[in-house]
Amino acid sequence: MRALASKMVGGSNPITILMVEDSEEDIQLALRALERAKLQNRIWTVRDGVEALAFLRREAPHQDAPRPDLVLLDLNLPKLDGRDVLLRIREDPHMRDLPVVVLTVSDSEQERFTVRAADAFMTKPVDFQQLATLVHMVADLGWSIVKVSRASSEA
Description:
This protein is α/β, with parallel strands linked by helices. It has helices at 24-36, 49-57, 82-91, 109-114, 128-140, 150-154; strands at residues 2-4, 16-20, 39-40, 42-46, 70-74, 100-104, 120-123, 146-147. The protein has one domain (2-145): Response regulator (Rossmann fold), CATH 3.40.50. The strands form 2 sheets. The chain has a 6-stranded mixed beta sheet with strand order 1-4-2-5-6-7.
């Protein structure tokens, strides 16, 4: 598990994002996209489906893990497939309302139908515009996204 913590700007709090992804390259692309958008959030990463559920349930070694405001979920994961993770999230009364965005390499309707319990989809590799749009959609749903002004980022 890895966390990228962002400082708070002004009086707003950044959202907490759990990225469930086994590819280091895809993780780095997503982190760079958020950085380029000047959006500051707390981003936690886990590498497989079993660890994702442990994080969400705050089971060892994630007892002190924060409840994420958003989950970015890869479908093709080791140990427990992303489809199974999504199903278990939706079956759990404590997690079922958690927004989940599925990361997929396929843009097919069949793939989307397979995981219709997701709130949104993003095709990998995740690019800057896709991720910025997604984060703004989450903001429109009522979460606080911190946008750093040009002056703050240069200080």
